[in-house]
Amino acid sequence: AEVVKAAIGIDARNLSALSTYPKLLTELSELGFDCLTLFLQASKATLLNRFNETRRRHPLSLSDLNLDQALELERQRLEPIAVAADQNLDTSQYNLYQLRDLIASVAGASASGPTLSLQSFGYKHGTPLDADLVFDARCLPNPNWVPELKELTGREAAVAEFLCKDPLVNRMYNQIRDYLEEWLPHYAKGGRGYINISVGCTGGRHRSVYLTERLKAHFQEKEWPVICQHRQLPSTPH
Q1: Is-contact 41 82, C-beta < 8 A?
Q2: What span, in angstroms and rounded, lies between the C-alpha atoms of 29 and 35?
Q3: What is the average per-residue pLDDT within 161-177?
Q4: Helix, strand, coil fractions of the chain, as percent rounded to 5
């Protein structure tokens, strides 16, 4: 049977594959294969926590290497692939199921144009490492200081009503929307399969969530492939 799509995983233990990967990728392209390289990474703190939680040894841990040293050796070995990758995906804030959906969306994006990965975040938790475009909403009125809105999120009607009444909020939304409308087609022409657009506010619960949800609704209406993630909310992509 004809193979339409295939996926190959490479990690830091595959020394022979790592050494021949650039040459192999060139040969496959010359043969007419359409190849997409995804490089999965995570912050050092996240990796340390994952290994501590699972109590598994790092595959590069030897008698003379501790976990921290093994992670550094892994980073060095994989650097050539990270540099050459079509997409670098930071997995720090994703659980297994969210990451599965993200990879499936990115891998299947070539036929329908690049997938827009919209994500809200809180600056006090750090800027996403995988962001291509970042918009800062911290200058907007903050529902956190309104007692009846403090415990709600930007997904809820009361917060949306509070924000959409403010001209400054609407002006920022319109300008972000118009910027993306103008430039996303140019990103698409470059053959990108995935564009990560991040909107941040202080805590990542109100303003950034509201703007991200509005952008999601707009671009879904325009029939762009869209996934949405709120990093500071206990939710799944939708």
Answers
A1: yes
A2: 7
A3: 97
A4: 45, 15, 40
